[in-house]
Amino acid sequence: MHARLGLVIVVGCVLFSLTGVAGEEDKPGLINPSLNANDDAFIGRQSGLFLQEADAVLKRVPPALQEPEERKLALYLIDAVLHDTRAPNRPEVQTFYHTRMEETAQSLETTKVTSGLRIWKMYNHGFIARTATVTVAFDLFRGPAQFRWDAPDGRKGIPSPDFPISDELAKRLVQQCDVLFVSHPHDDHADPFVVTTFLEQGKPVVGPENVFQGKPLGEKITHLKREAHTEQTLAIQNGQRNLKVVIYPGQQYQDGGPQNNVSLVITPEGLSFAHNGDQINDPYPAYQEDFKWIDAVREHHRVDVLMTNNWTMDMARMAKGFNPKLVLLGHQNEMGHQMNDRVPYWGDAKFLGLNVDEARAAGYPVLNMAWGESILLVP
């Protein structure tokens, strides 16, 4: 699941309420109670075959800026499987996810970066970035143990206890990292077990004050100044190394949503990468306050990679503001969401009013990666 990329010219979601829980509509032995037993079993078999084929293609055709058609179709095939309403509870989907995270742990445990920057795409909007000296994690999350379902009589929460990866596997991932940045308090970004494991291993966790606010765990999180363009120093590896960090004062929804840290990290090698969490200026264009600093990032800092949620408003403007050498999309197929809100790899851009293609047309490489894939950027 690795790809090597030499950059020759330039390089260096919303909280929800549940009106009910799974109940009498769940028929014993069926994953999807709206189907009969034969149809439900067929969807399971088909899901397994499609995911197996997609996995084989992605391993044969790793991430690259010039995306081969075969690879794009494999990602779209994953979309099709994951948009079964009850996909989080299908054993075939769980096996696909768990296996790719297991392979990612093995990759992290055996991969040494000697030059440049390797970035692994984790679940949802999670990423792990490694250079020769440091390994930095963003929004690591084991996966949802419940997902939303828009039932005919209202929204319900359906338990999916077997979807998250195991605590043991999560510990292996944490062991490979030096620091965790948490963008905001929503469950699909701030995982209490992951945060606790980082802290138990003596590794800092950086987040806004609203992450686990009012709880003992929240008192142990490092709160850096949310101040546009200002470099701060963060000690890692028991004080043996320092990162330069800028915490931009973002928000998920500017009409009342939570604080959302947009973190820019500069490594000892001078490589830099930014993660925008659930940054969104919505409703747009009325709420544009954050664009005052988004538009100016390029004037203050060089950004090699921007890791952005795939549904942020005006991605073209955000890319112009950060001026990255590479844009990596995140937050695809969040399985805790209802089916129509699991934004797919194919983007659903027209319906959502997004302008990813404008960012590409402006010359910014935009790349989709599946769970567990990684790419190596070499100046």
Count, helices:
10
Can you write the helix and strand succession as a string? EHHHEEEEEHEHEEEEEHHEHEHHEE
Architecture, CATH level 2?
A: 4-Layer Sandwich
Computed Rg = 20 Å
Q: Regarding CATH, which class?
A: Alpha Beta
How would you characterize the overall build of this protein?
- The protein is α/β, with parallel strands linked by helices and 379 residues long.
- The chain is 27% helix and 21% strand.
- The protein has one domain (4-25, 112-378): Metallo-beta-lactamase, Chain A (4-Layer Sandwich).
- The protein has ten helices and 16 strands.
- It is globular, with a radius of gyration of 20 Å.
Give the topology, please.
Blueprint: E1 4-6, H1 37-60, H2 69-82, H3 91-110, E2 117-121, E3 127-130, E4 135-138, E5 146-151, E6 154-159, H4 167-175, E7 179-181, H5 192-200, E8 205-206, E9 232-236, E10 241-251, E11 259-266, E12 272-275, H6 291-294, H7 297-300, E13 305-309, H8 315-322, E14 326-330, H9 349-352, H10 356-361, E15 366-367, E16 374-378
Parallel strand pairs: 1-16, 4-7, 7-8, 12-13, 13-14, 14-15
Antiparallel strand pairs: 2-3, 2-16, 3-4, 5-6, 9-10, 10-11, 11-12
Structural key phrases:
single chain, alpha/beta, 7-stranded mixed sheet, Metallo-beta-lactamase, Chain A
Give a short overview.
This protein has helices spanning 37-60, 69-82, 91-110, 167-175, 192-200, 291-294, 297-300, 315-322, 349-352, 356-361; strands at 4-6, 117-121, 127-130, 135-138, 146-151, 154-159, 179-181, 205-206, 232-236, 241-251, 259-266, 272-275, 305-309, 326-330, 366-367, 374-378. The chain is an alpha/beta fold and 379 residues long.
